[in-house]
Specification:
The structure holds 3 protein chains of 3 kinds. Chain A is α/β, with parallel strands linked by helices. Helix content of chain A is 21%, strand content 40%. Chain A has a 17-stranded mixed beta sheet that branches. Chain B has a single domain, classed as P-loop containing nucleotide triphosphate hydrolases (Rossmann fold), CATH 3.40.50. In chain B, the strands form 2 sheets. Chain B has a 6-stranded mixed beta sheet, with helices on both faces. Chain B has a 4-stranded antiparallel beta sheet with strand order 2-1-4-5. The model of chain B has no long low-confidence stretch (mean pLDDT 91). Chain C is of the alpha/beta class. In chain C, strands 5, 6, 8, 10, 11, 13, 15, 16, 18, 20 and 22 form an 11-stranded mixed beta sheet that branches. Chain C has a 10-stranded mixed beta sheet with strand order 4-3-7-9-12-14-17-19-21-23. Chain C has a two-stranded antiparallel sheet with strand order 1-2. The chains are: A alpha/beta, B alpha/beta, C alpha/beta. The interface between B and C is medium-sized, with 37 and 33 residues. Strand 17 of chain A pairs antiparallel with strand 23 of chain C.
Chain lengths: 424, 251, 505
Amino acid sequence: MNMHAIPQRTSAETALIDAFGERLSLLPGDGEIMVRRDEAIERLKAGLPTKRVESWHYTDLRRLLTAVPQYDGSAKAEVLSPILEGSAVLPVLNGVAATNKLPTLDGVTIQPLAEKLADGSFAAAALDLYGNDDAVGALNTAFVADGYFVDIAAGTELATPLELQNVQAGGQTHVRFPVRIGKGARVTVLERQAGEGTALASSVSQLLVGDDAEVLWLIEQEQADTATHLAQFKASLGKNAKLTLFVMNTGGKLVRQEIIVDAAGEGSVFTLRGVNLLAGDTHTDVTMVLDHSVPHTTSTEVVRYVITDKAQGVFQGRINVAQKAQKTDAKMACNTLLLSDDGEFSVKPELEIFADDVQCGHGATVTEINHDHLFYLMARGVDEKTARGLLVKAFVAEVIEELEDEALVDALEARIETWFATHG
Amino acid sequence: MLEIKNLHARIAEDGTEIIRGLNLTVKAGEVAAIMGPNGSGKSTLSYVLAGREDYEVTEGEILYNGESILEMDPAERAASGIFLAFQYPMEIPGVATMEFLKVAMNAQRKARGEEPLTIPEFLKRVKAAAGTLDMDMAMLKRPLNVGFSGGEKKRAEILQMKLLQPKLCVLDETDSGLDIDALKIVADGVNALRSPDRAIVVITHYQRLLEHIVPDTVHVLYKGQVIKSGDKSLAMELEANGYAGIIEEAA
Amino acid sequence: MPAVQETIDQVRKIDVDQYKYGFETEIEMDKAPKGLNEDIIRLISAKKDEPEWMLEWRLGAFRRWMTLEEPKWARVQYPEIDFQDIHYYAAPKSTPGPTSLDEVDPELLRTYEKLGIPLREQEILAGVQKPAASELEEANDNVYKSGRVAVDAVFDSVSVVTTFKKELAQAGVIFCSISEAIREHPELVKKYLGSVVPTTDNYYATLNSAVFTDGSFVFVPKGVRCPMELSTYFRINEKGTGQFERTLIIAEEGSYVSYLEGCTAPQRDENQLHAAVVELIALDDAEIKYSTVQNWYPGDAEGKGGIYNFVTKRGDCRGDRSKISWTQVETGSAITWKYPSCILRGDDSQGEFYSIAVSNGYQQIDSGTKMIHLGKNTTSRVISKGIAAGFSQNTYRGQISAHRKATNARNFTNCDSLLIGDQCGAHTVPYIEAKNSTAQFEHEATTSKISEDQKFYVMQRGIPEEEAIALIVNGFVKDVIQELPMEFAVEAQKLIGISLEGSVG
């Protein structure tokens, strides 16, 4: 958060502080949880981060967050049909867990977060902020009202994916999904961020991935192009745990998706794949901080952006390798197609390395469509527009096709088709 | 010249024992072939001889000209005349092959208390040696092994061997990745180095190389031990019947 | 494989105890009292016999500086600097202005002899001997042919001698101290000083603008290819002084100049401040090549003492098809904060940055470059090689940006780091910003250690461990070394060798 004294609050800052006063009595949890909420709102009172705060250098939240919508309790959101047919859907509608529709699954305990916050069984420390620039965490901790607590027992192998569905209906929503994945469990989770209206949504997913567990977690963000979406994904990996995180951003007006992963168990493997399709006058920021804390951990990240219109894309990726994390193998790549003269893209891939026996690298490219490829296609009689479309789709499809689940690949490719049909 | 007694060696990192009580004697002037199936410890033996830190000798002794070399680091062993031609020679980016040859030759001369070579003398020697191996001087200006083909790398190994004039040469799978022409050039290079005061240990999986470098003795390595020794006819027998028979016989 | 314990122990011992330039020269000095205020600035300006406009320029900068805060964003840590506890002016008493070497204090000349600087004209005329080893580098065509170098020597705050002035003057090249330029060529200084690094630029640059005492000035007129290398050797000698030199190089249309800079300081147990500003201006079709070998005292084995090196270096490719190339070998200083940059203003202009940064002991380096693409069809290239050993922290920080109108901007960046031992850190912080769809940026970075396989291979050929590491490291930095003029390349390679001496058991 900004260390400098803020001379005058912006209207957004004022609105958030006022909203806290109004909502306070309605927020679940007391005692330690209330202490966390108070600390969080104090951070917000010190001002939203500006570009002078290093981790917000390319997303000046204080400047970009121009308005904060009111809470709208009367607005209705509907459950969406899941991305993958047959998924077990856990809906949160306009910020409230829809408990009448909960599936039952062997080995999976599901509890609405409002309940868990209220009954005192939620560990308040889970609401602690990450570092002193955690504006997304602070916003969510201050206001979080619901979501789901999901506990997956050791050894559980879920045949059906879980879909966490967070559907906005305009107004503010602040939800959280604490998920504990037991030793050796294997699960696929789809985190769906969708909805309509001028929403301000904060959403935090926090995972504890047990030893030997294997998790595929997919974040599909398809908010309305009037929505502000501030999200955080946090995970800690146990021994030999494997986490594959796939992030797809195709919506939102102002989007910040933070990814904070700690490869805390020896032999753990983290894989990040991202596809970001940006159009209109929007701003999308994916910021990752990855800690390699122990020896013998591996990570690879491939994040791609397609930028059209006046959109602004940001990728910040920091890989920290602790002194004892020998034999770390970490590779990060960010590739961007900047397709319009009014678009902008900024990337900051950082390596912070304190161990000597490591193989770490990162690459970043910002380019146009490859002219040779374009020429080749056109020489085969494909018109320029079609040829460009093919090449751009191929550029993102490369990332998606790495997902081995065919149904999932098809579902995502269909969504990309839709996006190109609307924005291409 | 080389006497290995009851040698036990393991991978330092995880303690896996690879060499398990190996005995071997190679005399000056002798060409000894070490053969064995994959995973029998052939390459490990070459690394242990050259003093690679990743392997620990837990028992036994390696005597070279009657003296133990176990306490010597790889550079000291090299300076004393032990040369390993690598199965996979390393690429050293940014270091021209010529420069490397000069530094290596002069480092060994220094260790022996000799003056460094003059530039003309050095160039003369390199040109002569490269000529016999059909190597282009232009190649020697390129960084060591970087972008070299498999055959070029092996030739560069033999070139180094020729220039450094070692007493004990260990050739680790020198034939792998070579076509027949390159194999002949490399074998001729090795044969030219045969001399009464030099021992050559040829490590190979196949008999093919031994048609060109005819060994005086052949030793079969299996599970970290020499399970059978003989003359060159043993290599032929292996070629005809495979390792299975000998392994069974030894078991 | 983690580095063996001896390696680590030995790396701790390197540095510093082997800092062979750590002698002090006994010379009578003329010093300003400690502290900084307008009177001190008036004193500096008066000592330099400066015109009124220069004094006003300095005072403007000083007033600005009083309003600024020290920047804290770099990855370096040091105790607060007491800016009032520094002498802002110190000059050998033999000044002003020796007209020939015979008039220079013989102590000074001995100092430069110890530094191995070819100051004496007869030595220079004899030409720097081409080292024998270079026969092996026939492939390296980058051999500087003439072997002659014109030298400007700056001792603490004052330029004491400049060689080859007459010959340069015949070609129309002005090479003199900045003080002399202010007096003799005020129109050029007025036009260009502060035009690349304005007095308001940043904390240290602003401080420098207020208090700079000397530095070099180079002017290469239209169409002239400077007939020899120009070189400045900077040395901080006097205790408790800061060194604030200012260098200004102007290459007019179609001209070329290659400029070298070398730096050393004696061993002292207190920290000394060095805050230089270098401005380069290249007009249409001009090319400036600027090379630095920085070997300021890095502090002792415990991290005590050493130079704080806070430097602002910036080149302005003001003309079309102009080119500015920075090459640096940074092995010294306790702290280095330095980002030689290029503003690619002219169409088709080119910027280059080649860097080797070696840190050891408790050194902290935060260095890199900025390539700001403003003109059309501009290209930049960044090659950075960082080597961290001991307890040091070595950071590459760089910014590549293409503005809206910079169509077809191209950048290629490669930054590799090598770690020796597990007590040091290597960090890479690139900022890449594209605001133009025709921009093409490629960035790659790697961090690794010297591979055990490579080391074993080299040692198997009889090369002892220490030399094996030096050989591999010199291979690692080859791409940058070959950008240096020949004399500097040899010196730089030796310097890297020295800093790695005793690095293994």
